[in-house]
Structure formats: C-alpha cells, structure tokens
C-alpha cells in the first residue's frame, strides 16, 4: 500500500502515524495539516480556468492526532480573481486555516527568473530525513546544508506518498509540503539547543511545478527576539516557480 498521511472516512480525515508531530507527542505535524488544507482548497470549483497565485497556511493551535474535519468556503468570487478558504476542525475547534488566491489564466509576457541549480541526476542520493520519513517514500538529493548542518540549504526532493489515501499528489499539494521544509533545511540554529516550530507558510507562485523532482533553496533570518523567518526559492527542472516564507517560533529546547 502507498504511504499516506490520511484516510478519508465520511466527512473526516483519519491521520496515520506519518502525520505525527516530531515536536509534541500525540499531535499532528505541519506537513500533514498544510497538505490536507491544500487538498481541500483544490476541491473548491473555480468559475474559470485559473491558477493559484498565493497560498497561505496558518497553524492556529496544536492539532490532536485524531479524526479531522475539513470545510471550505469561497471568500471572494469572480471570473478573474477568486479567493478560497479552508479550515480543519478537531472536536469542533478550528486548528488550522488556509487561503488560496486564484487568478484567471491568460497569455501574457514571460519574465524569466534566474536560477542555476545542478539537475537531480547529477547529485548523489542523500539521507536528508532518514529512511523512515514519509513512510520511506521520499527521495532526496542534497546540494548544500542539511538538518544538522547550518544553513543555507539546497535540496532536491521527490515525493512518492499520497496525502489522502487513493488520491495522487497534485503539483499544488507538493508545493505546500515543500514549503514546510524551509525551517529545518535553512536553519542556522543549533537544533540540540533550540526548537524552531513553524507557525505558518506563505507561498507566492508564478506557475505550478512540472515533473517529479522539486528543489528548495532555504535560508533563515532572525533578530534574536524569539522569532525567525525562513525564506525559500522553490524550483523544478525549468527553474524557480515560487517563493515561500515561514514564521518560526524559536525557543530553548527543554
């Protein structure tokens, strides 16, 4: 069976062990919540052919590793611009929220974004998160940095899991998942001394990614006041397709 984060059960999504948080026992992780919110947003119909130009994800509270209800609504409707909101609820309490800004597709000038990264086949395989991550379904090729190496970090990733059982990963869901990697990959904090849990993700896209391999180029900034910001370039073989940011809650490790 293909590794998956959730199994749909009626109106609920039941999390598997892949959704478990590394920060707090019995809670869900940000990758799981963000991917599920994005999956829900994609189920909302668009009034015209549109692309997602912005995706924001907010983790509002710790989410128990329990059946999770999703709901969506259209915040702004229009044939040129549409905004969709999704929420996740556990025991009738909202634990996470996402909004997507959709823009109608049209033929307009291409403005190239520079990005010169070695293709994944020229980079040796790496063990970025261990062979158990994502149920052993994820392949990585590390160009720079690492979880135990001070950032910046650059990494190729190929996801082989399903976020919801029986549903193939879409380009937008893979983008949301990749946007959660920035804090760990680009951190310059000592992980033995400090924790840096993500509070949100914001992704601005000029297009959706193409192909199985995606790249993240991440670095972190902080003024030393208990908060940090992860800045990311997201790319595929054709070059950068998005920029992403995370707000990180920095605290001493207990």
What does this structure look like?
With 254 residues, the protein is mainly beta. The chain has a single domain (4-105, 120-252), classed as Beta Barrel (Porin), CATH 2.40.160.210. It has three helices and 13 strands, in the order E-E-H-E-E-E-E-E-E-E-H-H-E-E-E-E. The protein has helices at 30-43, 171-178, 182-186; strands at residues 4-9, 12-15, 50-59, 68-76, 81-90, 93-104, 139-146, 149-158, 162-164, 194-205, 213-222, 227-236, 239-252. Strands 7-8-11-12-13-10-3-6-5-4-2-1-9 form a 13-stranded mixed beta sheet. Helix 1 (30-43) packs antiparallel against helix 2. The protein is globular. The chain starts with a strand and ends with a strand. InterPro entries: ACOT8-like_C, Acyl-CoA_hotdog, HotDog_dom_sf, TesB_ACOT8-like_N. It comes from Sphingobium cupriresistens LL01. This is Acyl-CoA thioesterase. Pfam families: 4HBT_3 (PF13622), 4HBT_3C (PF20789). Residues 120-250 form the Acyl-CoA thioesterase-like C-terminal domain.
**Overall 3D form:** globular
- Biggest sheet features: 13 strands, mixed
Please identify the structural class as seen in this structure. mainly beta
Say how many strands there are. 13
Determine the mean pLDDT.
Answer: 93
Per DSSP, the total helix count is 3
Q: How large, in whole angstroms, is the Cα Rg?
A: 18 Å
* Residues in helices, as a percent range: 10-25%
CATH homologous superfamily? Acyl-CoA thioesterase, double hotdog domain
Q: How many domains is the backbone divided into?
A: 1
CATH topology: Porin
How much β-strand is present in the residues?
over 45%
CATH architecture: Beta Barrel
Distance between the termini: 37 Å
- One letter per element, helices H and strands E, the order comes to EEHEEEEEEEHHEEEE
Provide the CATH top-level class.
Mainly Beta
Low-pLDDT runs of 5+ residues are: none
Strands of the biggest beta sheet: in what spatial order?
7-8-11-12-13-10-3-6-5-4-2-1-9
């Amino acid at each position: 069976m293909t590794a998956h984060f959730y199994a749909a059960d009626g109106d609920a999504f039941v999390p598997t062990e892949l959704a478990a948080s590394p920060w707090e026992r019995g809670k869900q992780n940000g990758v799981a919540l963000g991917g599920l919110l994005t999956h829900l947003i994609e189920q909302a119909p668009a009034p015209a052919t549109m692309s997602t130009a912005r995706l924001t994800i907010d983790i509002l509270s710790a989410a128990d590793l329990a059946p999770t209800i999703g709901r969506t609504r259209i915040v702004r409707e229009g044939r040129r611009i549409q905004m969709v909101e999704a929420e996740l609820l556990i025991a009738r309490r909202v634990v996470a929220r996402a909004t997507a800004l959709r823009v109608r597709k049209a033929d307009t000038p291409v403005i190239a974004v520079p990005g010169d990264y070695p293709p994944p086949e020229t980079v040796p395989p790496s063990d970025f998160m261990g062979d158990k991550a994502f149920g052993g379904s994820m392949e990585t090729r590390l160009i720079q940095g690492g979880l135990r190496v001070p950032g910046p970090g650059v990494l190729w990733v190929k996801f082989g899991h399903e976020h919801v059982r029986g549903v193939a990963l879409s380009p937008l869901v893979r983008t949301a998942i990749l946007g959660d990697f920035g804090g760990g990959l680009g951190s310059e904090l000592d992980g033995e001394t400090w924790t840096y849990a993500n509070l949100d993700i914001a992704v601005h896209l000029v297009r959706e990614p193409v192909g199985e391999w995606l790249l993240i180029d991440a670095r972190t900034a902080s003024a030393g006041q208990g908060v940090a910001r992860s800045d990311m370039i997201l790319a595929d073989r054709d070059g950068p397709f998005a920029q992403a940011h995370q707000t990180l809650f920095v605290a001493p490790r207990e």
